[in-house]
Amino acid sequence: MNFDISMEEVNVTYRKSEALKDIDLILPAAKIYGLIGRNGAGKSTLLSVLASFRRPTSGNITIGGADPYENEILMSHISFSYEKDYSEETRSIRAMMKSTKKFRPYFDTTYAEELVERFGLPAKKPMKKLSKGMQSIATVIIGLASRAPITIFDESYSGMDAPAREIFYEEILKDFERHPRTFILSTHLVSEMDHLFEEVIFLHEGKVILRDSTDHAIERGVFVTGRKENVHQWMEGKHAGEEKRYGPTVTTFALHTPSQEDKKHAAQLGLELSSASLQDLFIHMTKEGPSHEQ
């Protein structure tokens, strides 16, 4: 069965507010995607449409060429994990695992039990009595053990502490190797998660402003350091970010992939070019001001 995802001119409007604007994406199956955006960028809306929790206001979405909305077969192959309210949930994680197995055809109970043990989660304790961090762990255990061909995590791990998140990241990579499938991870914890992503999607104010492999995305930004007049000369015709001064020296971010000629020119001017991180690129592309769609 084909699980390639296609979104064409997808728009979502809430009353008069545009949550998603003309989203065009093709996501081949069996990759780990990072969906990166600030709070309110539209990440949860995009994922809820993808997971068939709602229809787009306009546009088309298909998975393997089929409309997933109210498609029971396809929906059973999509796992959507998000932050939930467990304040009234009397079941334990073990009882939830048993329930989930009934409608998740690939759910692996043995793997789920291994995760419960690795995370140190109380298996018999009612969910409502667990801490927020433990509840987040329970959510990601269900998501991982479901082994759905399309597995989505919408910041469901945000309540976990750093050691637990590290275990989660390790399990993503290990289980992807054992059981390749599409992972879509939404986050604003860019520097902590960038090593997971094969491809990244930047979402800003409801629009996709970048979609690229992680390696290529990182090459789109560079820091330029040197004397102010020389930096300004090198930056002519390039998009400049915020400039920081250190005496006679300045450092500027350039939204630009330096060519060999650019590097030679920088050397002639006595400038240092240093690589930007994915987080640097994200911060500069989503700052207030003109859009920087790529």
TrEMBL record:
Keywords: ATP-binding, Nucleotide-binding, Transport. Residues 5-230 form the ABC transporter domain. The lineage of its organism: Bacteria, Bacillati, Bacillota, Bacilli, Bacillales. InterPro entries: AAA+_ATPase, ABC_transporter-like_ATP-bd, ABC_Transporter_VariousFunc, P-loop_NTPase. PANTHER family: ABC TRANSPORTER ATP-BINDING PROTEIN ALBC-RELATED. It comes from Salimicrobium halophilum. Gene3D superfamilies: P-loop containing nucleotide triphosphate hydrolases. It comes from the Bacteria. Pfam families: ABC_tran. GO terms for molecular function: ATP binding; ATP hydrolysis activity. This is ABC-2 type transport system ATP-binding protein. The keyword Nucleotide-binding applies. The keyword NADP does not apply.
